[in-house]
UniProtKB/TrEMBL annotation:
It comes from Dipteronia sinensis. Gene3D superfamilies: Ribonuclease III domain. It comes from the Eukaryota. One of its GO terms (molecular function) is ribonuclease III activity. Residues 23-109 form the RNase III domain. This is RNase III domain-containing protein. One of its GO terms (biological process) is RNA processing.
Length: 142
């Protein structure tokens, strides 16, 4: 029987895989450090991740197995954090479930991960602007 990672380890791995995937898509074209940081920060916020997940769900883009992975992410128990208090439990849980999905795909199916990231608008060039505009409009609406 395979050893199971503690929930905190699973969460950490998912967050790191998600972060790495997002950072990767902002590497080209070359940006100033400030611009790069602003773009990445706008997308890794809970509100932006929630918006991205809603796009995948509304477009019925995820397989049944991927939807199961989303449920795993929602079930990860964490203590009350400042972010959770700021955005609310539902948004925080949905953002965590997207991170879990990205981490899962990063470790099990990189080709599918790339397709999901492209579906969300992550690729080189101007398509990243679409993500930023959606994230900014989401932030200003709150």
């Amino acid at each position: 029987m395979a050893a199971k990672c503690p929930k905190s380890s699973e969460t950490s791995i998912s967050v790191q895989c998600c972060s790495a995937s997002i950072h990767w898509h902002f590497l080209f074209p070359a940006l100033s450090i400030e611009e790069y940081n602003d773009r990445v920060t706008a997308v890794v916020r809970c509100e932006a991740q929630d918006t991205l997940l809603q796009k995948l769900l509304e477009d019925d883009y995820l397989s049944a197995q991927e939807r199961d992975v989303l449920r795993w992410g929602k079930n990860v128990g964490t203590s009350k954090t400042r972010t959770r208090r700021r955005v609310g439990t539902a948004v925080y849980n949905r953002a965590s479930s997207l991170e879990t999905l990205i981490g899962y795909l990063y470790l099990t199916n990189v080709n599918r991960l790339e397709k999901v990231m492209v579906k969300l608008g992550f690729s080189t060039g101007v398509s990243t602007q679409m993500i930023l505009e959606q994230a900014i409009s989401q932030l200003t609406a709150t």
